[in-house]
Amino acid sequence: MRLARTARWFLLALLLSVVPATSFAGVFISVGFAPPVLPVYVQPVCPEPGMMWTPGYWAYGADGYYWVPGAWVPSPYVGALWTPGYWGFEGGHYLFHDGYWGPHIGYYGGVNYGFGYGGIGFAGGMWRGGFFSYNTAVMHVGVGGGWGGHVYEDRVVVERGYVARDSHVAYAGGPGGIHHDPSPEERVAEHDQHRPPSEIQQHHVEAARLDKTNYVKNNGGHPTNAAVSRPLTPSHTATSHTSETTHTSSTTHTSTVASTHTNTAGATHANTTTPHAMTTRPAASASHSMSTARPVAAPRAPTAPKVPAAPKGGAGSAPQPHSNPGGHHK
Q1: Are 141 and 147 in contact (CB under 8 A)?
Q2: Which of 71, 147, 152, 245 could form a disulfide with 228 if both were Cys (CB 3.0 to 4.6 A apart)?
Q3: What are the pLDDT digits (tens) for 56-66?
Q4: Model-level pTM?
């Protein structure tokens, strides 16, 4: 068993070494049981204009599923938008499709990550004239004159972006998963020039992997550090976190491992042998809406950072609203 696991991770490393950077959104991880439901958490305040939100997600390592906290990260170039990775059920296994940067939002399985990522498109903001503007209906931004005209509020586009509004299921397809076929806009995005997660993002994932408290086997699917309170920069990865995490979903997952988890709110996850049901009790009013979120860190005086120019063939500085019609979210 241990030898098989070692061989699997060796093959994974070999695969990553030969996959070109332009082909991101490929499948790298295959697991025989589903990831836990997504936790509900408070989004930290955006510290300064130009930072982009990357939602938290369940990753998989040698010791099982672990949580990668949500974080604000610098945009790699003007016009860049982040398409989050997602788990998809295919051929009896759960396969992970990595996230990427591009000029349009691509397919991410219809998974409701919150904060503008309702399952289809992105309702959290748009690029206007070389600056990113934030939709305060779902984004938790700072206050003061430094934000200028880079904020707006549009709840209609948020509602259109939901696929499964009240779902916290972390995977697409299969038993109990989200069922959403790619929209025409998402299919177009497949042919864009993509960039893989930045070096800062990769360091963040590695720090999350090394933190044993992020693993399901240690936190029962309820990570203490659901989001990073400070933006990711070369000098900071996953060392400062928020700890406001609650579960609000009621879903069933098929799995092949046995364990029992109980959280402080009284919700119990009972797992039996293959297959098993994992169910959580819904909270009455939890939501990703920023109307109820509290700041977890005082925002720094905002200044508009310099953002690299878009690469040839990528997005320019012209306005790029990305609110795909159809669907629904938080």
Answers
A1: yes
A2: 71
A3: 999 999 999 99
A4: 0.67
